[in-house]
Amino acid sequence: MLALIAQNVINVTDTAFLGRVGEVELGASAIAGIFYVSLYMIGFGFGSGLQILIARRNGEKNYAEIGSTFDNGFYFLVFLAAALILISNIFAPYFFKVTIHSKEIYTASVGFLSYRIWGLLFSFIGTLFRSFYIGITNTKYLSISAAIMAIVNVFLDYALIFGHWGMPAMGLKGAAIANVISEAIATIFFFYITFTHRELERYNLFKFRKPEFSLIRKTLNISVFIMFQYFISLSGWFAFFLIIEKCGERPLAISNIIRSIYMVLMIPVWGYCSTASSLVSNAIGSDETRTVISIIKKITLMSLITAFILVLIIVIFPSQVLGLYTNNLMFIKDSIPTLYVIAGATIVFSIMMIPFSGVSGTANTNIALFIETTTIFLYLIAALLLANFFSHSIEIIWCAEYIYYIFIGIFSVLYLRFGKWRNKVI
Fold it and tell me: What is the pTM of this model?
């Protein structure tokens, strides 16, 4: 959770600073930012598969195999990042031209992405380290790395967006450059820690073995469904923001601020989700399958309590929270109803996503992909219907979030209750 808090400082900082630049910049950072995150989630999905494998080997105390899994994951993620950067640079401008209604939003989005996309290389490597440290249940370095990334980003954002300390005032492009540099520095920290701490030597990391395509294939057998799952999930959110963009620049700008707050509210739940997935995999690897449901129940309760406390703060101080992003009083007033909607959605999210992470932890990632795809389909239908009938009420369109979480939770609970996952071998 501490790692995710620090990482989301980047999102909050970008949105808060750009909220003082203009609504076009806010909207463009939402569109291009989610597009980038959609690509990032492909690598993140592969990393989640690595995490499940590493956690399983850790539960088995098969430490030598962890090193081989890690190294081959490194080869694959570097190759994947290079491929996605190339594809994005060639095709993203054409895709944006077809899907974005506003010419100003289009121009700003393409400019932002042309710089931001280079962060994929560093973020993918960071995902590799994240998977390793969570898989061996040693997460302290994640927090330190993320804190370094957040601090560097705050200073670079301030300098490059507004032109302070002798830097050029680059606006939206400055935010993208700041993001990439901060991710690169955080990645360097991970390399330093991993190469200098003796307690990590037993895992035999970075031995630069010859690529083992059988091991990469085994990882992909688990990861490919998670990769598609995360990509579909974020693509669904990207499509959601394209729906909102058709409603105008003001609704899109409001939605970007709401997205930033929403992601902060999600931090504890995502932390619990990662823990649930890792602990479920560890439990199965240790032949403690009978404890899986109990683990999920306990983590769900913790998730709900934590989310409720954060949501309570949002509900009591809505204007003050929104004031962190903009000093436009009318903008704040227009945003409050949507803020209340996502506050309620966070409560549902905190309950429903833990069982879904438990499904991924069983390594039956094809089932998780099926659940995600089905739920996203229902979610986008709901969003389109709400946008068609309530195009001037952005808070109503955001109610589609409830559809997503309710169905993903129901499907996950049914699978954990009746599905065949207890004897899964990986």
Answer: 0.77
